[in-house]
Amino acid sequence: MSVDRFIPSLWAATLLENLNDAHVAVNLCNRNYEGDISQSGDTVRITSIGRITIDDYVKNTTTITPETLDDAQQVLTIDMAKYFAFQVDDVDARQVKDDGALMDVAMRDAAWGLGDAADTSVLSAMQAQADTGNALGAMIIGDGANIDAYENLVDLAVKLDDNNVPRAGRWCVIPPFYHGWLQKNASFVSYGTAANREDLENGIIGAAAGMRIVVSNNLPSAGAGRNYVIAGHSDGVTYAEQINSVEGYRQENAFSDAVKGLHLYGYKITRPYVLANADCISQ
Fold first, then answer.
1. Residue ranges in 163-251 assigned as alpha helix (H)
2. Helix (H, G, I), strand (E, B) or coil at 150
3. Can you tell me the mean pLDDT for 184-212?
4. pLDDT-derived band at 193, boundaries 50, 70, 90
5. Nearest alpha-carbon partner for 19 in 82, 89, 101
6. Using the 8-state DSSP alphabet, how is residue 95 labeled?
7. Which of 26, 63, 45 is nearest to 171 (CA)?
8. 221-241 burial, b for 16+ CB within 10 Å, e for fewer?
9. In terms of DSSP H, where are the helices of 163-239?
10. Residue 34, CB-side half-sphere exposure with 13 Å CA sphere
């Protein structure tokens, strides 16, 4: 690939598309406020209203007085900035049939790395900032005398029920060892066969206890052999990102083409009560 054929807007769009494919946790967030990010430090102001009061009505007696809506504003700051930079030597490029293919592979790997970093950060915030009353505590996941993996999902769903979290759009992120125990559980493998036969995409492996189940290696850990399982709803977390700059240039001191890119993002836990978690220990 020569720099003459480098189209920044095309590469930026391709990278963002690949980045979305790489995301797991980020794709579970509310992303309604994306689109106006230009630089690190930008802010997105999120306005929400308080709950509306419901009163009794008696015909010919009740005097209706409209209440003034209470509003609250939260600020999402684009305070995370990650970059990548790599080069493709002319000799390496000439050893492939399509010299652009090598760059494509490198761009996909860069997208995966950026997505992995963002997912790790978002999942950590989901666990740390969830309401403390929604934590199930440490437990050994397995079978027999241990906590059943499927029953633990039901307990997390009950936590969401207690907080009036909408049933539509619920999800749960689990680590690989937890997924292994679920696959041994008849309650999971026999549930929702149509959903569970869908093509695997972005870590989604089926549904259980009224939640879409997603597998991730980026869940926070409380120690060796243990990870948090996080359940929630997209209304609880807002995320925004942009590939702010992708530049191609010719290396001055080498025979190679180089590319560098800047990924800007930020997130906000807007409703901690819609998130629940359990500290799960592998048997």
1. 176-183, 186-189, 193-196
2. helix
3. 63
4. very low
5. 82
6. T
7. 26
8. eeeeebbbbbbbbbebbbbbb
9. 176-183, 186-189, 193-196
10. 18
Handedness of CA 198, 28, 160, 136 (dihedral sign): positive
- pLDDT per residue over 83-139, tens digit each? 989 887 776 666 555 555 667 777 788 888 888 899 999 999 999 999 999 999 888
* Strand ranges across the sheet with 276-282: 147-148, 135-142, 276-282, 226-233, 170-174, 211-215, 204-208
Cα separations (Å) of 227 from 13, 20, 211, 215? 34, 24, 19, 12
Token pair, residue 39, equals 């630089």
Six-digit token string for 118: 């963002």
Q: Which helix (H) or strand (E) covers residue 129, if one does?
A: helix 99-129
pTM of the model: 0.76
For all residues of the chain together, what is the average pLDDT?
A: 80
202 to 73, 81, 134, 211, 232: CA distances (angstroms): 32, 23, 26, 15, 17
Q: From 106, 112, 117, select the one nearest 21 (Cα to Cα).
A: 112
Q: Cα separation of 125 and 136, whole Å?
A: 17
Sign of CA dihedral 49, 50, 56, 60: negative
Residue 205 carries which side chain, given as an amino acid letter? Answer: I
C-alpha span between 39 and 145 (Å, rounded): 53
- List the helix and strand counts (H, then E) for the chain: 7, 12
